[in-house]
Design goal:
The complex is a heterodimer of chains A (about 260) and B (about 210).
Chain A lengths: L3 H11 L5 E4 L2 E4 H15 L3 H9 L2 H13 L6 E5 L5 H10 L4 E6 L2 H13 L6 E5 L12 E7 L8 H11 E12 L5 H22 L3 H13 L3 H11 L2 E8 L4 E7 L2
Parallel strand pairs in A: 3-4, 3-6, 4-5, 6-7
Antiparallel strand pairs in A: 1-2, 7-9, 8-9
Helix pairs in contact in A: 4-5, 7-10, 8-9
Chain B lengths: L1 H19 L14 E6 L6 E5 L4 E4 L7 E5 L1 H6 L5 H7 L4 E4 L1 H13 L4 H9 L1 H36 L6 H38 L1
Parallel strand pairs in B: 1-4
Antiparallel strand pairs in B: 1-2, 2-3, 4-5
Helix pairs in contact in B: 5-6
Classes of the chains: A alpha/beta (about 260), B alpha+beta (about 210).
Chain lengths: ~260, ~210
């Protein structure tokens, strides 16, 4: 029996038509994926934070802290939190960059952006945050704008990842760094099997129970398997122009943090 | 991820303390956007404390810091006494890089924390249970202090008088006095010997 990652590899190999991409395990037209992903996130936006805590047993907070630590953020920095969703990273960055700094919370999905904006405003974080609805492939910012760009659990939903990485490279300042926090491939086969079981049997049921939307969480599990593994993503970052690229596996490779610089 | 767990826990505890502080978070204002990094010998990662408007953020990041202390937990505790600072640096127990004033201001905040635990507790469980708990705590402290003193005294008695594993202070003092006397006698004897050797060598020269 093929594991989810083998299926991923197989599907990628089978994919011969350049106008198609994957939406979970389905092959769809490229222009279809965006709206399909959008409908998933419109559906889960309100329960997104609760589900994150439930699904990861709260560990996503530590993964995000790790990302903040690796960002080397300092007062006065300009940060782009891409696919920032409900603003977990933005909240922390906003406090660390201070009054002189700025954080742009960008997300392609208006529902996620609204939930994020409401949450941050309720926490009194208003001074240095801007909200932008933007597609990662066509970032609406000038060249060399940001000191730090983060994209946490967002890249796998992007239709053309290479194009998005090139776009991020363009808007990053020389000396700036990109941090990609994303689900990845567990390092050990046993963990991989347990993770597959959890993702395909428990996760959708949890989604059905809490967010009343099992299908979206089925997509989540499938999209994770279709996402490039650690080495492939690193190669993609190199190809986009990033230098000194590296990655760090977290929780046995369930999640990986990729880092790359623009010089 | 252990490092992130530690920093998250520390951050929560510190900010809770600041929230309960009777002087509020005003003390943080002069330190806004300043960062103090502490590298403890006991921890394999640095801890950076950054101040925003009303909060302290703890991160594992030493790329940017206004002041960096490289020390150990025991030396950090000794730092409470300002006069210890020079001694600790001289004895290589403390290294300071950057603006010392930042570290001093952080220390001032830590020392000026004034928390009215009773009123905080009363808000949650009510006045009477808080009063009773306070009384219970006081009694417990007194009993523990008495028991601790008693145990120390009994252990001393047992070690010194019953088992004779240790000597009394008086015996130690006698021993020290005797050692000093021996030292003096040895010094006298040594100078006497030197004198005799000088005389013998002088006589040999004359012959």
């Amino acid at each position: 029996m093929m594991s989810a990652h083998d299926q991923n590899h197989q599907i990628n190999q089978d994919k011969s038509d350049d106008n198609t991409t994957h939406f979970g395990f389905q092959t769809v037209e490229k222009n279809e994926k965006e709206s399909k992903v959008a409908s998933v996130f419109h559906s889960v936006a309100q329960q997104y934070d609760v589900m994150n805590d439930l699904m990861s047993f709260g560990i996503h907070r530590l993964w995000k802290r790790f990302t903040i630590d690796a960002s080397g953020v300092r007062p006065g920095n300009k940060v782009l939190d891409l696919a920032g969703g409900t603003g977990d990273l933005t909240a922390k960055f906003s406090q660390l960059v201070g009054r002189e700094g700025k954080v742009i919370l960008a997300d392609i999905n208006s529902s996620m952006l609204n939930v994020g904006r409401d949450k941050l405003r309720d926490r009194g974080l208003v001074q240095n945050i801007e909200y932008v609805q933007a597609n990662a492939q066509y970032l609406p910012f000038e060249d060399n704008t940001f000191d730090i760009i983060t994209i946490a659990f967002g890249l796998r939903n992007v239709t053309d990842k290479d194009m998005a990485l090139r776009s991020m490279y363009r808007v990053l300042k020389p000396g700036g760094r990109l941090l990609v926090l994303e689900f990845s491939k567990p390092e050990h086969e046993l963990v991989n099997k347990a993770y597959d079981f959890y993702s395909f049997n428990i996760l959708p049921k949890m989604g059905e129970l809490v967010a009343k939307d099992g299908e979206s969480y089925q997509y989540l599990a499938e999209s994770i398997r279709m996402h490039p593994d650690q080495e492939t993503l690193k190669t993609m970052m190199d190809a986009a122009g990033f230098e000194q690229t590296s990655f760090k596996n977290l929780t046995g490779g369930v999640v990986a943090l990729h880092k790359g610089y623009k010089f | 991820m252990f490092a992130q767990s530690v920093s998250a826990l520390l951050e929560t505890v510190i900010n809770q303390f600041l929230r309960y502080n009777l002087h509020g978070t005003r003390a943080l204002k002069p330190l806004a956007e300043k960062t103090l990094t502490v590298q403890l010998a006991e921890l394999p990662f640095p801890l950076s404390f950054s101040v925003s408007d009303e909060k302290i953020h703890v991160t594992i990041n030493d790329e940017h810091s206004d002041c960096c202390l490289i020390t150990s937990i025991s030396s950090l505790i000794e730092l409470k006494k300002e006069q210890q600072l020079t001694d600790l640096i001289k004895n290589n127990k403390l290294d300071i890089l950057g603006d010392l004033k930042v570290a001093q201001r952080f220390a001032d905040i830590a020392q000026s924390l004034d928390i009215d635990w009773q009123s905080e507790l009363a808000k949650r469980i009510g006045d009477i249970p808080t009063y009773k708990l306070g009384q219970l705590g006081q009694q417990l402290r007194e009993k523990l202090s008495f028991a601790s003193n008693q145990v120390q005294a009994d252990a001393g008695e047992w070690l010194v008088h019953e088992k004779r594993l240790m000597i009394t202070a008086a015996e130690l003092s006698y021993f020290n006095r005797d050692v000093e006397q021996v030292v003096q006698q040895v010094a006298t004897l040594s100078s006497r010997l030197d004198e005799l050797i000088n005389r013998v060598s002088h006589t040999n020269l004359i012959k």
